[in-house]
Design goal:
It is built from 7 helices and 18 strands. By secondary structure, it is an alpha+beta fold.
Length: 408
Amino acid sequence: MQHLTVCAILALSLFTRCPLSSAQQMSTTFGEDLAFLQAHTAVVVLSDAAGMAKIIVSPAMQGRVLTSTASGDAGMSYGWINRDLIASGERQEHINVFGGEDRFWLGPEGGQFSIYFKEGDPFNLAHWHVPAAIDWDPFDVVAEAQDRIVFSRAMQLTNYSGTVFDFHVDREVRLLSREEALGYVGLDVQASVSVVGYESVNTITNTGQEAWTRESGMLSVWILGMYNPSPMTTVVIPFVPGSEEALGPIVNDQYFGAVPSDRLVVADSVLFFKGDGAYRSKIGLSYRRSRSALGSFDAAGRVLTVVQYNRPDREAGYVNAMWELQEHPFAGDVINSYNDGAPAPGAEPLGPFYELETSSPAAALLPGAALTHIHRTIHLQGDAVALNSAAVANLGVGLENVRNAFSQ
């Protein structure tokens, strides 16, 4: 069967009524989201000295970044959060979709090395479960400052083939200074934009007695970000051009079936994917096609989002997410983007939201060895010239081309 993400699982409402509703209104400001979250759970706010660039982090929700702003409490809140689920306090059986711009997950999701299915179970919805360690269990706070927070968690997981993984997770979330954030996207500190940037540094260490191998299975770090959609939001992913014979397909759009051409446009070296939360679809890029950045542009709010990650210099295996016994379990995607929407005519979407995701290589770790995956998120809002410059530098295309991507 086709690979189904969390979005498909809950949207199909096989197990329980989805707690979300399309009528659920997204708050318009960071301050409103902060007040809601503080009323229902313990959170940590990281802030710059001026109180303008801020992020909300949740130790109880695996150290995830729930949302951020570049303009203080009155500014736009960029992350999507599931208010209904958080307010309910009720644990869902298969997954708890709290939302958030940067959440820690692990792969692989499907196949003979999956950590989401028990050994011998069929690859179907009824048997899919997100491990509690990355879904419900809190992370321990080991250090905290105004601009950073560090988490730690010991874990043990067993994959579909019966391999037991003993490992330790260290996760640091750090708010970038204005100078750092603008530097990462190629802008001068004097640029006429509001900016918030942060990164999560995610390390998994093999604390067991056995090496992690292709024969027994390996884990990977998987970071997913959920954002508020709009009719004028476009996901932009630059790719390495070249023949399919040499590099393979440009994009994998078969997660939920082929994406229609009015929602996915492949240009010479960049692809455009709608982030409007109005049509359920997902795409992915392999290592050979991926670059070290992806992003999105909300033309209505004039918000450019850039996501960067530590792409390895040399090709490595990436875990395969397909829900089947796999012929190529280490030929998975490095970059993914998901757009939410109704799973069937008349049904409610999950959010809606859209996602930007990155994954580490499969972790071939000897006992005591570690792998680190860095996922960096930068939101820019303001001057059109500066935003265009950042888009060209990071995504390989100007914003006028982004705006017109689906009007050809």
